[in-house]
Design a protein that fits this description.
Elements: H1 2-11, H2 14-40, H3 50-73, E1 78-79, H4 84-110, H5 114-134, E2 144-145, H6 153-159, H7 162-166, H8 176-200, E3 206-208, E4 211-217, E5 220-225, H9 233-250, H10 254-286, H11 293-302, H12 304-318
Parallel strand pairs: 1-2
Antiparallel strand pairs: 3-4, 4-5
């Protein structure tokens, strides 16, 4: 055991390893708190995958983490000068302590709640990132001045843990006011688009709020309500999580990660429109009663597949590197017919 500990601390300094263990404790508590939502709300059942994906990302990035630790400990390791960065880190840590404590107290008094879960998740993320930053190894010699904050070796090390820290904000419900407003906005938008498409196709349909009035089938009134489950919240959250995971594993630059996450939201909305059009067409010709729960739910899960496949197809495009080689110019060529230098 002693030999294993010496071998481990030779790669990962003991203070940073202790910070990692503390972070595991924070995220373990977050997972326990959010598991209530994963059991109760079908929209967030994908949350059971989050701990596995977080562990995989840390495992996948481990060589980069150890390389970043060596860069922090190397002589001349870049450090941002001045008080701005240390003050920001300590302020973020203090805010994390307050949020985490408030969330725990709220959880203890009122049980699982959206504000409590959000406070615990945000507090744990702030504590994890700032603790890892502060426990980064010091350089062996005098540090060199960093060119901008982003070149600070400690920030580069902590940035490798952004996905493991922040993905928990996606795997639990937002504050009810935000979630309800977003769901209502998506409901109205989906209803308008579906109604507009049917009008363009020359199929009579009437929109009354979030209810689509279709022609009667076999003399029976035919109405389709665009319910909360059809708003796209489920597909938006699931695809946001999928896009974030794919971006964390396969992309390096921040703008590429952000673009993939945005495209995940766009694809989720587009596929949800396709789902709503299919269900409305099903009810248009067979009646709303024919749109059983199984058909409704299967269509909801099926649309996630093309979204994820679309994101996977975008990865090679975002990783595409185009180089412009130098063509043969009019200058002299070397003897022997070889290429010009």
């Amino acid at each position: 055991m002693t030999a294993f500990w010496k071998k481990l601390t030779a790669v990962v300094p003991a203070p940073f390893f202790a910070a990692l263990l503390l972070g595991v404790g924070y995220l373990g508590f977050v997972a326990w708190d959010q598991s209530w939502w994963w059991r109760q709300k079908e929209d967030y059942s994908f949350g059971w995958l989050v701990p596995c994906f977080v562990a995989f990302v840390v495992y996948d990035r481990w060589p980069r983490i150890t390389a970043a630790l060596r860069a922090c400990a190397a002589a001349g390791s870049p450090r941002a000068a001045g008080w701005v960065l240390p003050a920001a880190v300590h302020a973020a840590m203090a805010g994390g302590v307050v949020l985490f404590a408030l969330g725990v107290l709220y959880r203890a008094g009122a049980g699982a709640s959206q504000p409590g879960t959000l406070a615990i998740s945000m507090g744990a993320a702030a504590l994890l990132l700032t603790t890892l930053f502060l426990q980064a190894p010091a350089p062996e010699g005098p540090p060199s001045p960093a060119v901008g904050l982003t070149t600070d070796a400690r920030l580069r090390l902590a940035a490798l843990f952004v996905f493991p820290a922040l993905v928990w904000l996606v795997s639990a419900p937002m504050v009810s006011v935000v979630e309800n407003d977003l769901s209502l906005f998506l409901l109205r938008l989906v209803s308008r688009i579906v109604s507009g498409v049917f009008d363009v196709l020359g199929l009579p349909i009437q929109q009354v709020g979030n209810v689509l009035v279709l022609p009667p089938v076999n003399g029976v009134e035919n109405r389709v309500g665009v319910a909360e489950a059809c708003s796209g919240i489920r597909s938006q959250t699931a695809c946001l999580f999928s896009g974030s995971f794919l971006a964390a594993v396969f992309l390096e630059k921040f703008w590429k990660k952000a673009l993939l996450v945005v495209m995940a939201m766009v694809l989720a909305f587009a596929t949800n429109i396709m789902r709503s059009l299919f269900l409305t067409a099903w009810a248009y010709y067979k009646g709303a009663e024919a749109m059983e729960k199984q058909v409704h739910d299967i269509a909801g899960y099926v649309v996630i597949v093309p979204t994820v496949l679309g994101l996977i197809c975008l990865l090679p495009l975002l990783n595409l590197k185009i180089s412009f080689g130098r063509g043969d110019g009019p200058g002299p060529k070397p003897a022997g017919g070889g290429p010009a230098p």
